[in-house]
Write a structure and sequence with these properties.
Helices cover 52% and strands 11% of the residues. The chain starts with 7 loop residues before the first helix and ends in a 5-residue tail after the last helix.
Length: 247
């Protein structure tokens, strides 16, 4: 659990919570009645929606149902289920959330792409972190969009990815450009940062990682310098915001 010194996380994640609410409203506005389904053809782009929030999946289904060239063929609530459903339905496009139980979206992308190298996957998430976006693209995603994106942008991205293009949302592109010259954290430093975010002191981190306390102190100094922050709390908050770590 995060220690009491990290009360600022609640404030830091207020925008994420607001973004999730906006995503639900964007995809599932209550004022909007059930859409009239448009007849699709055999040439329709087949789509799978992967998200553990039913409102998001319902919203995607409603959005796609009025597009004559798009057809929802499968849904999944976990990364593991997504891999299975991909094998069964072979969708042209997969809309993939990142944070899900059992298997994360990133792991699901890697698993699907290892079996089906030509799989075209679009990450659709609430997290705009540059490191997480980079990991998703490196895992094989063709696009990275935020759930509060406009309907038109999502539909255009689906069609663009189907034709072989790659794309990022403007906000994610900006954040990637902002940190492109940063000195990345090493795997060892990421492990330390994750333990910091969990509320561990240097001595506890040293015991957990079988290191000397001086070694841990040196790694903490490196983390603060690389992230451009002055204390451990802000380092953990920034690590979570950018997707360097998750809890």
């Amino acid at each position: 659990m995060i220690g009491t010194g990290f009360a600022g996380f609640a404030r830091a994640y207020a925008p994420v919570r607001a973004q999730r609410r906006l995503a639900s409203e964007t995809f599932c506005p209550e004022a909007r009645g059930p859409p009239e389904r448009t007849v699709t053809t055999d040439n329709s782009i087949k789509i799978m929606a992967v998200d553990d929030h039913p409102l998001i999946r319902q919203g995607i289904a409603g959005l796609l149902s009025v597009q004559s060239d798009l057809m929802l063929v499968a849904e999944a609530t976990t990364g593991r289920e997504a891999v299975h459903q991909f094998r069964v339905h072979r969708p042209d496009i997969t809309l993939m959330d990142i944070q899900m139980p059992e298997m994360s979206g990133l792991d699901a992308i890697s698993a699907i792409r290892s079996e089906f190298p030509d799989a075209r996957i679009i990450v659709l998430t609430t997290y705009a972190g540059d490191v997480q976006a980079l990991r998703a693209m490196q895992a094989g995603a063709r696009a990275y969009l935020l759930k509060d994106t406009l309907h038109r942008e999502l539909l255009e991205t689906i069609r663009a990815v189907y034709t072989g293009r790659k794309t990022l949302s403007p906000e994610v592109s900006f954040r990637l450009a902002e940190h492109v010259s940063d000195d990345p954290l090493t795997p060892a430093e990421i492990r330390v940062l994750r333990l910091i975010a969990e509320g561990n002191a240097n001595k506890e981190i040293a015991i957990e990682l079988s290191l000397s306390e001086e070694t841990v102190k040196g790694q903490v100094r490196n983390i603060l310098a690389k992230l451009g922050v002055k204390d451990r709390t802000h380092a953990a908050m920034l690590g979570l915001k950018r997707g360097i770590i998750d809890l």
